[in-house]
Amino acid sequence: MVQQYIIAGFALFFVFVCCVHADYRIDCISPNKENTKCESIYKCKTFTDALKGTVTQSQKDFMKESLCGYYDNIPIVCCGTKSDYTSKRTRRSTESKTNSVIADTQCGVLVNDHLTSGQPQDYPWAVKLIYNQTLHRCEGTLIHKRYILTSAQCVNKFIANYHGKLAKATLGLSSCSEGKSCVKSALDVGIESVTIHKDYGTLRGAPHDNIALIRLDQDISFNENILPVCLPQQEEEPEVGDKVIAVGWYKRSSTKLNAELTIVDNKVCQEHYKKANYDQTVVTERNICAAGYASKICAGVSGSSLVRLTAKNTYVLEGIRSFGPVKCGDTVPTVYTKVQQYLQWIHDNIKN
């Protein structure tokens, strides 16, 4: 009973906005890079033993970073063999840099940093793509006053033939829930041209080099609702276990959503697809996988963004949604195009 009170009190240290699927014992990687399973904190002897004594700040941080989610208000943790970091953590020096595509332009900043508010200033780089024949769902990310980054499958010939030509991009779009207007801050901008990566294609059914640049037909004036995201540094490698945020609109919703996910090792990611009978799916070094117990965001659409908050409190674009599970509650990770692998291509194809 005493231990339950200790754990209940310690649960206040955790911050998580989504609920887990009942089958929570999925593969995970601990902050110490151990391959293990998500488990109820009550059944994780590593943590229950640690909580019997004095818990250090480092252990608190470790436990928060180990969180998989909640089930019936019980913390579900990535249960490894250690309750603290095995090596001293160092902050990445590259995180202090700002990597805006536009010189001297602030990027990756939220005017009002309420991660679940659904207001237009939340993630103001999120863009909806509009087609001239159907309500096909695709998204993009504003990285420049003239450019949007998206997936190639949102702008390829099949899409043009089946859904019609990409007609415009809607920026600064707020949530339309509860009968509120979603167009007050929105800006529709025409499309000048599209550049698809020359190596884009499919390998055993899975897209590769799934990235494209959309050039708008006018320069964008930034405001609190419309701001670009930062790009990662060339030498900056996102690490397994890093917390990231998926941003976008649910397929059949007008509400902008976001969810905290965790970067998953690509080999583990590949194994998840094999177990889910997607044996032909190929995850390469130019992909980044992320998983978590998101609600409707799990049914997100192509081209939406995966961002990471840096030590300088700015967001960098780590991934562009390429493919993933089609139903919520699925434990298969979502696969993103790894932006860090395409920085040179992005810079080579932007005309100021």
TrEMBL record:
Residues 115-351 form the Peptidase S1 domain. Residues 1-22 form the signal peptide. Residues 27-79 form the Clip domain. It comes from the Eukaryota. The keyword Cell membrane does not apply. It holds the Pfam family CLIP. Keywords: Disulfide bond, Hydrolase, Protease, Serine protease, Signal. GO terms for biological process: proteolysis. The keyword Protease applies. GO terms for molecular function: serine-type endopeptidase activity. PROSITE patterns: CLIP, TRYPSIN_DOM. Belongs to the peptidase S1 family. CLIP subfamily. This is Phenoloxidase-activating factor 1-like. It comes from Diabrotica virgifera virgifera (western corn rootworm).
